[in-house]
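task queued by scheduler; priority normal; single chain, no ligands, no partner chains; default sampling; output format set to structure tokens
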Amino acid sequence: MRLNFFDVLCSDIFESKSAGFKGADFYNMGVNATTDLSIADVLSVLRTIENKQGRDRSMPKFSSRGIDLDLVLYDEVVDRKNNLPRSDILQYNFVLAPLAQLNPEGVHPLEKRLISNYL
């Protein structure tokens, strides 16, 4: 599989407290990219990167981890099977802040409001 990601933009790195458990602080960032890959292929690429970086999938969902890559939006696609748009965009500032920084005029596909309005 070719990694066809273009026009890559990265947000600042945001430090946040662990959510849902006691643990070390997390460092979060967002990445915008253009791609001709399907949703399934993007998710496969993200999982492959996590695996190559030693992601331990036996750990509980709410635990410290070295890497966690999530597809948060894919254009304005609504795909419940793949959790798009990601359900926790508006729930956690560590998801919302990088997204709003990268897409200040971006509209949430379900809410139909500017993402930056939720900060």
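post-processing summary
- Residues 5-118 form a domain with the Alpha-Beta Plaits fold (CATH 3.30.70.560).
- Residues 39-52 form the longest helix (14 residues).
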